[in-house]
Amino acid sequence: MSGADGSVLSASQLCVSYGETRALWEVNFELKRSEIVALIGPNGAGKTTTLNAVQGLVRPKSGKVRFGSKDITGMRANEITASGVSLVPEGRGLFSAMTVKENLQLGAFTRRARANLRSNMEKTYATFPVLRERSGQAAGSLSGGEQQMLAIARGLMSEPEVLMLDEPSLGLAPMMVSKVFMTLAELQETSHITIFLVEQNVEAALSIADRAYLLEEGRVTLEGDADGMRGNPKIREAYLGL
Fold first, then answer.
1. Alpha-helix residue ranges (DSSP H) falling in the chain
2. What is the pLDDT of residue 104?
3. C-alpha distances out from residue 131 to 85, 102, 181, Å
4. What secondary structure letter does DSSP report for 140?
5. Which whole-number Å values give the CA distances from 216 to 10, 36, 37, 55, 165, in the listed order?
6. For the whole model, what pTM was predicted?
7. Which of 77, 107, 150, 189 has CA atoms 20 to 30 A from the CA of 127?
8. What domains can be seen in the chain, in order of their start residue?
9. How far is CA 31 from CA 36, 106, 164, in A?
């Protein structure tokens, strides 16, 4: 699904408040089909709030969120997922006592995904072979990297057009971080899925992103293609340590 301007997901003048505290101030962004777009910035900048507002987990005070030409502002989270937008939350949100296979099955809760459950499961196992090996194992017994792979795979089971990920590298060893980001890049290349990535590891995020937005104190203060953002003196000094 694409809007008249070619965007698959966009926000305009998005404002979110928690009580009297404003978390987002007139945030604008757009994602084109098959792009990887990174949302970077310091802790507390509002990055997770942005994803939650898109997914319907928090209600914007004002502004609009569009999925293609459809206004999804204020819709329930399950309705947004059924429309084609899926969030892999920070901390993974797995059911640790349930098996890998059961967690994947829970991801296929939409009508379309249920109808394609078997083929989607095979596709997922082909992308993440370790999950086939661990399919009968409790999710909580997996390594941190394997749990992150499972969280991403579960997000894909709903057949999303847009996959949003909140801090997928959190708590992972450097080698596993590289593997997770390589997997995301391969997913984008092979399935042409659009990826919206919130990530503290700015270097890793920009290594696979097409474009990026810098969010600071609830406001977008910089945007551009990944190479330009990587070369920006502000980004280099504050986020890349260069």
1. 47-55, 77-83, 100-107, 111-115, 117-127, 129-133, 144-156, 174-191, 202-208, 226-231, 233-238
2. 96
3. 23, 11, 17
4. G
5. 19, 20, 17, 21, 19
6. 0.92
7. 77
8. 1-84+160-242 (3.40.50.300), 96-159 (no CATH)
9. 8, 27, 11
